[in-house]
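Translate structure to sequence.
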C-alpha cells in the first residue's frame, strides 16, 4: 500500500491544464479543402480533403481544430485521504462548497509547493499536446485511403450517369407517345 505524502489540514497545490480551442490551416490541403490524387492509371483528380472533413454532410473546411493548453495551479487544503492499492486520493476544499479530488495518478496531481506543481503541470501539458499532435497529423478515417475515396466517387458518378441515361430514354419514349395521342 502507498504511504500518504500529505496529512489532513495540509495546504497543497494542484496542477492541471486548461484548453482553449483554436483553428489552424489543415496540413493535408493547406487550406484549400481539396487534395489531388493520382490514380493507378496516372490520371490526376481533385477530391475533397479528408483531413479537415468535419464529418456528416458538411464539406471540408480547410481548417482543423486544435487546442492551446495553459497550466493552472490551485491552492487547496486536504480534507480527506482515501488510500487505495496503488494510488492515494486526496479530498480537498473548494470554492463555493465544491470538493476536489486530487490523485497521484490522475489529471489532478497534488504537490507540496507551487513550483513543483508548475513543473508537474507543464509535464502533463507537454505529454498531452504530443498525443494530440499525433492525432492531428493522422487521417480522420485511417481505414479509408484517398484512393478509396476517389474510386468510390468515380463509381457513383458512373452509376448516376447510367441512371441519367436511362431516365433520358424514358422521357424520349414519353415524348413519342404524346405526339401520337395528339394526332
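Result:
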Amino acid at each position: 500500500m502507498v504511504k500518504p505524502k500529505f496529512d489532513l489540514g495540509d495546504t497543497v497545490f494542484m496542477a492541471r491544464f486548461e484548453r482553449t480551442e483554436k483553428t489552424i490551416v489543415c496540413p493535408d490541403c493547406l487550406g484549400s479543402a481539396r487534395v489531388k490524387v493520382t490514380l493507378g492509371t496516372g490520371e490526376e483528380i481533385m477530391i475533397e480533403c479528408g483531413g479537415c472533413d468535419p464529418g456528416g454532410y458538411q464539406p471540408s473546411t480547410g481548417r482543423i481544430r486544435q487546442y492551446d493548453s495553459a497550466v493552472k495551479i490551485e491552492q487547496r487544503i486536504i480534507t480527506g485521504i482515501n488510500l487505495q492499492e496503488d494510488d492515494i486520493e486526496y479530498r480537498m476544499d473548494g470554492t463555493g462548497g465544491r470538493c476536489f479530488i486530487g490523485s497521484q495518478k490522475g489529471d489532478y496531481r497534488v504537490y507540496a509547493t507551487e513550483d513543483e506543481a508548475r513543473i508537474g503541470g507543464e509535464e502533463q501539458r507537454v505529454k498531452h499536446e504530443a498525443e494530440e499532435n499525433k492525432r492531428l497529423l493522422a487521417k480522420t478515417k485511417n481505414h479509408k485511403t484517398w484512393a478509396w475515396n476517389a474510386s468510390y466517387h468515380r463509381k457513383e458518378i458512373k452509376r448516376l450517369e447510367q441512371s441519367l441515361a436511362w431516365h433520358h430514354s424514358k422521357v424520349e419514349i414519353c415524348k413519342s407517345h404524346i405526339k401520337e395521342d395528339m394526332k
